[in-house]
Batch of 4 targets.
Target 1
Amino acid sequence: MSATPVLQSLIAGRWIGSSAARDLRSAINGRLVAQTHAEEIDFGESLDFARRQALPSLLALDFQQRAAILKALATYLQERKEDLYAISAHTGATRPDSWIDIEGGFGTLFAYASMGRRELPSSNIVHEGPAQQLGKVGQFMGTHVLVPKRGVAVHINAFNFPMWGMLEKFAPSFLAGMPCIVKPATATSYVAEACVRLIEQSGLLPAGALQLVIGGSGDLLDRLEETDVVTFTGSADTAAQLRVNANLIRRSVPFNAEADSLNCAILAPDVQPGDPEFDLFVKEVMREMSAKAGQKCTAIRRAIVPAAQVDAVAAALRERLAKIRIGDPSIEGVRMGALASKAQQADVAERLAQLAQGNEIVYGERDGFAPVGEGVGDGAFFAPTLLLCRDPMRNEAVHNIEAFGPVSTLMTYGDFDEALALAAKGRGSLVGSVVTKTPALAAQAVYHAAAFHGRLLVLDRDAAGESTGHGSPLPMLKHGGPGRAGGGEELGGIRAVKHYLQRCAVQASPTMLTAITGEYVRGGKVTEDAIHPFRKHFEEIQVGDSLLTHRRTVSEADIVNFGGISGDYFYMHFDEVAAKDTQFGQRIAHGYFVLSAAAGLFVSPAPGPVLANYGLDTLRFVNPVAIGDTIQARLTCKRRIDRGNRPDQPPQGVVAWDVQVTNQRGELAASYDILTLVAKKA
Ligand code: NDP
């Protein structure tokens, strides 16, 4: 018989821990899975290592390089996922539950890798422009930059998604250039430890970029500094306790919390039994009760239905819940596993007992333990339990007590305003769903419920086929809600990276701002040389390289020819009489002609390193171009992004060019950025 493994912490580049402290047991059969270590962690050493070793290594890389590492890491882990599934099974999770945790975690890494690649520069400074002119002549401007905070990110995670919870916080922090110290919830820390071991074995991260704490966090929070960040997921009580840590308050250390949430799903009054939306609602409630045995921060705790439909909804849910096979997920056909621990089982039973007072049980048993299932041994199983509250405006418990398991409460409403008032009684939730077939009801619901929710899903028959579901946070959408849900924000695309960067307003001349931001700011000095910018390779192009073109007088023939080629005979270009009555008082050239003519002025036509023009940004036609006006273009390198090299492409970089088209009076006619791919020399 092999000895029970003692989990280890990864601190300052060393795995620490050999003597056992706390037993961690399988949620399925109560057998010992692992033990935490008894050795105390020196958090001074951990933080010092993060600041002195990891931080400089992370900042020696740029956003693009860190994004590439995230992708390599996701690929590495993906190839070793079966080891993680085997370990995850001890948490009571079914394969689909573990999929959310494991592959959902990898998916988040992949998503941040590609968002970083697409949206962040090949430097460590993000220009949050555009710069604003603060004086009359444009030589004093103001803008915002985001820079790495030069601190450490502490992540405290919940027991329910030990991998996803860790990776969804790690990905944006790493991208931002922050070393992370991760403290998983102890109950399922063996999964997080297995994942961190793989990450360390990959050799892909700089030493200390990710440290792991098994067990308590000791005096870690007391040691944090002004540049650090804490991100927490767990219970509202723990969040309330930790966010008032005197050191965090004194030093204004941001504390981002994602805590309890009594999420709701509303069946709108327009939906009748027999409508596809009726079945969608029932399915969604059933899925959220049974997935991960209801231990999802996003699970539906409150199903709000019209009083007239409650019997039909209850009957449909009863029928579906009865079909869920509960037991050891390794048994074929089992759809719902166990809660994560016996402690969790006791906690859910206690909260169910409180919730059941004064409410009917529509499905399940009063204690939740009764019909446990197959192969359950001494596991932490809990039967799905559906309650019915007929007076939810007066019953406060159903809006306040979260049984973090397969427990949900049906509650009835009279009119739709009452349904929305019930939704708000959750006092801030991560997510809510509205199931309706009427756009006006969807609009009314979102307008009122958005103030109380981090995310809202509007579900109808059109969206159903592709819907990702009520309970799935997505990397590109914000996760986190106001009030009881903790008041924090995670994910939401690059927003999450910005949470780990520091924003600073900068005032300076355009030339200074160009140097500071790494992006050409109009009015700044430009460099003109004999070589056309389009004849330069990526490495040779500098921000500020510029070309002032020759001029071209726009004739009536140009307008007529352009109309003929494009088929655009809009009156403004072709009807002298109608054009006279407009604000321009005369016929003017097509905006797209000006754009095309400008390209004719600035391109260097022979084959060269510019491989493609893949789009335009920020296009504005500022002043009209009339017949007889003379236009000229200035093309200036605004931004260059080195995304590294990909094996499937010739070596290349992204160059954005600032284009200004002016008329003979020096007035701006058109303004835009063109985006090109430019070959590298190598
Ligand atoms: P806790 O709040 O107890 O724990 C969350 C995390 O905080 C764990 O890593 C825990 O570590 C840590 N922690 C607890 N106390 C401290 C402390 N004093 N200092 C530093 N870290 C601390 O939540 P649980 O995970 O036990 O879950 C309890 C309840 O929280 C659930 O029943 C549910 O209601 C809610 N919950 C909400 C979630 C959400 O996403 N909204 C997710 C999970 C749970 P340790 O495990 O070592 O105690």
Note: Residues 264-474 form a domain with the Aldehyde Dehydrogenase; Chain A, domain 2 fold (CATH 3.40.309.10).
Target 2
Amino acid sequence: MTVIGLGPMGQAMVRTFLDHGHPTTVWNRSAGRADDVVARGAVRAPTVADALAANELVVLSLTDYQAMYDILGTAERSLGGRVIVNLSSDTPERSRTAARWLAERGARLVVGGVMVPAELVGTEQAYVFYSGPRADFATHEPVLRLVGRPDYLGEDHGLAQLFYQAQLDIFLTVLSAYLHATALVGSAGVDAARFLPYAKENVDTLSYFLDEAARAIGEGKYPGDEATVRMMGATADHILETSRDAGIDLDLPAAVKAHYDRAIAAGHGTDGWPSLFEVITRRE
Ligand code: NDP
């Protein structure tokens, strides 16, 4: 196959393909970034057109979809018949637009989102969301599987990036919450190491709450038998005030409190906390 884009992620993928005996052609804007994988046996394509001509399967690992246009736009005539597997991060809408752009040039797009850091590519922990034409995905699935366990979501090109961004939505928000909480205890001189076991236990129990919320969202019913919006909202206010007293960032707790305020204003005060979903699904 061909791999275009040799940042840490692209290089990790090429190493994996080579380790499994798959001849791999590579191209990168900054040519020197190909040196390591070429030393391991990859073939350096002198131009983008050569990289496209070498194989039907072309994997992209780039910063975003604009980089795809910048690169493939220089060799549009070589795109006919290619299956472009774009594993770069971007929005679902940009994935759909790219599928149309490639189709107009005779190529087909399979969209992917790699769900592990580069150093875990090719390991058992790695998995990758895919969406786009099922037949093209199925044809190339055996080699794509080397990157990580493939999880095919459907024909809609936007789905892979939608799941990718949704997973990172959880990941980034929880990481910020952990840093915020650590700053909160730090305001009283508590160091991160002392707080860590408490934070870990907290994160480990979160999946219980997700089960409860998913059930309520699915049923569209939010019984307020246990944690109501009003009770949790008061806590959200206490976190905001504690942060203010500690002199640390207020943006994160203010955003959380805003969800509770809006839910109360919408009449969910005595409903269960998962009813926040009703205000989160509508931007105001
Ligand atoms: P880098 O930013 O290090 O590499 C990006 C690649 O894109 C480089 O080859 C770079 O070329 C190229 N590029 C960027 N802009 C342009 C442009 N305008 N024209 C031509 N080439 C361009 O990213 P990574 O390798 O870390 O990641 C690649 C993708 O994988 C990203 O979308 C990232 O979100 C995703 N990903 C990365 C993970 C990781 O751990 N690194 C984890 C999961 C997903 P040049 O070398 O010339 O700058």
Note: Residues 5-10, 28-30, 33, 61-63, 67, 70-71, 88-89, 114, 117-118 surround NDP (CB under 6 Å).
Target 3
Amino acid sequence: MGYRILETEDIAGYLRERGHWGTDEPEVREVSDGNMNRVFLVTATDRTRGLAVKQALPWVRVAGPSWPMSPERADAEARAYEQVAKVAPDKIPAIHGYDSDNYALVMEDMSDLEVLRTILNEGGTYGPDTSRRIGEFVAQLSFATSDFGMPSAERKALIAASVSPELCKITEDVVLSEPYLEHEHNHWHPGLDDLAVAFRSDPRLRTEVAELRHLFMTGAQALLHGDLHTGSIMVGTREGAPVVRVFDPEFSFVGPIGFDLGLYWANTLVSAARADALGVEGDHGDQLRLSWDAFRAEFRRLWPTRVDTFFDDAFLDRFLDRVWTESLGFAGAEIVRRIIGFAHLTDLTTLPDPVPASRRALLLGRELIVRRAELTSPEDVEALLR
Ligand code: SR1
Ligand code: MG
């Protein structure tokens, strides 16, 4: 059967057809929240079982049919989950099946967990484990799918299989060029008019963003999540133990490792700007350091297992230094686009007055882009935050 868009009333039958559900009638509700897809939660009436169904639509969900987008992005997501399952299965939801005809994933019900951004927006903190696990996640996925973790020919096949031009183009446009141009996707609070104009007419900033854009287009270092923001992470506790789950890797492709770290850092820094604006005490400003330390430690732990020992220890030091610098640049670009480009963050938009925190974040974003080579440690970034 060909592709059909699933509605709430179709879900129980669909799951039965595919052998995921028995004859009992579950409760089904649509909980679509991200920019791109539809998600349904399916729960047994006695609450003993649950599943989630995620389907890619032939357009960007928040824009509607006026912004067509191939649902094949779900193939990229399914492929990414397969790769992560090999190296970090504890950090992603369990995948029960992928239906490539309908671009639908059937996966673990995570409704007992909460989206990290929601927790932060409600005044919560990251806690001691979240950023450590995110740093480990990026290291485990990127090491395993780099030329250090995979034989050369296998890697070339992964690069070919993971090519995702449509989704990469979104990032090349909305993150890595449009905010620095006049574009209909861009919008911002009127209190930021002067900065939006200044960012569009800043040759140094533009050249540095061009550098990052080119790196994103050409730097095939490892398989990425591709959209690692705090809305793509769920956290909580199960049987007394902390749980962190990374989801939504539909933007996955083989790209520069710093893009994943940078996106996460941008979102932690924006959450810090929100906390600061509200006078909330928290651990937001520590997360870049915690995730970087965990990433670096895990990458170094895996290094002795590399498949190509021509890459020596001195090269590793250089490589990690480059990842650090590139991550800062991508973090800056993500901050800027989330404020004067497309797809703004509720961290800022829901503030009583978003302008002061947005201005600080924008200026921080610019610093991270243009001065990334001078910032050599997390303490340098923390100093910028102060
Ligand atoms: C058209 S999509 C806009 C944004 O939503 C996704 O979550 C990505 O961040 C993308 O840039
Ligand atoms: Mg997403």
Note: The mean pLDDT is 97.
Target 4
Amino acid sequence: MSAVRLPTIAAIATAPGRGGIGVIRLSGQDLLPMARALSGGKAPKPRVAVFTDFPDADGQPLDNGLLLFFPAPHSFTGEDVIELQGHGGPVVMQRLLRHCLSLGARLAEPGEFTRRAFLNHKLDLAQAESVADLIDAASETAAASALKSLKGEFSQRIHALVDQLIHLRMLTEATLDFPEEEDVDYLAAADAQGQLRGIQATLDGVLASARQGALLREGMHVVLVGQPNVGKSSLMNALAGDDIAIVTDIAGTTRDTVREQILIDGIPLHLIDTAGLRDTDDVVEQHGIARTWAAVERADLALVLLDDRAGLTDADAEILARLPARLPRLVVRNKIDLSGQAAGEGEHDGERVLRLSARSGDGVDALRRALLAQIGWQGAGDGVFLARERHLDALRRARAFLDAAELDYAHSELFADHLRMAQLALSDITGEFSADDLLGEIFGRFCIGK
Ligand code: GDP
Ligand code: ZN
């Protein structure tokens, strides 16, 4: 436990709005007196639900429900935790929360409960991040994978790597005091190079899994080029299939939809509709459009949707000319049920062309496969745990240090130093030595109450 006494924090843990039950969570040190006060003098047993009135300062009940007391260290945060399960109405919850504050708690900051769990070694950083990812999961696959990370599968793979690295570092550092030249012989005898190659291979495996996990979280960004009536909405619906329905984000003042999101095999597909990228004098709308163009910069693919009977219009060509040159394109000719063409893939002027019908569904599966292949999604096998761009970055940095170590193999000191740096990069993932600003950045993105 930390030596500093942190203030007691309180927050409504359940989602805003009405519900059968609403939960208020408190965390702090020595919360038994508060648990007593909140239950009107009862002495709650550890981890046993007590049904009780929640009285205010004058003894008048604010609500009734269950009180749970989790003494440290056997709680989510590692501190004393109290949970009040009351009636889930906004007014009831606010009154109860205000009462907790009057008893000396302060309002929790976003992610503060999880941050305390991290500081008390209940979770490492990758696990703490997966709490948010699990809550924000956009698909069942993403939720299952986030749960894997939360239960420590990702962290264990990082720990295994770090253990291998530590072993090699110990070996290397033992040689640093050796007389000249002998260290290299010693390392050769211990097959340090072989060990390094083994670590590189393990890291590549973790990186590949993490990349899949990051796809599951980030999805793919697709720029949709297509004139009114070519079948954009119909195609979105056809692509979404059985997955959760379309999320449409109508930009503040614009009537055109700029972004939509659907799921394909659990992978979020973020669509930017270029029909919304028109010229305008409206300042607010210009801001939205600037943001959208910035998103276009990061896109993975441009999908050019045409009516198979009409083909590419001048307006389409104009938009295509403004897209980043590096952006791969896929031309989709829709409404083959009207044009009489067969579904399938071909090529035209060096561009890939897919023919399909959003209405009949003919050829839609091929488009799904093409989209997933474009970003390298290999399907959610058992090994996929959710990962973030931050984790990929740390893994890539560690890989670069291993490469450097390979080159500097004959210089024990440099070799040892590269290994040390690789270990440091990996520890960024689990947060062993993380700086406060990184923690602030990660936990600040949580909602209050987590
Ligand atoms: P959007 O304006 O690009 O979003 O196009 P919509 O999806 O709203 O479709 C415009 C019209 O074309 C609607 O009447 C659709 O039912 C029709 N449509 C879309 N796709 C197809 C298709 O593959 N075949 C046929 N026959 N009609 C389609
Ligand atoms: Zn539409």
Note: The chain has three domains: 9-123, 134-216+384-431, 220-374.
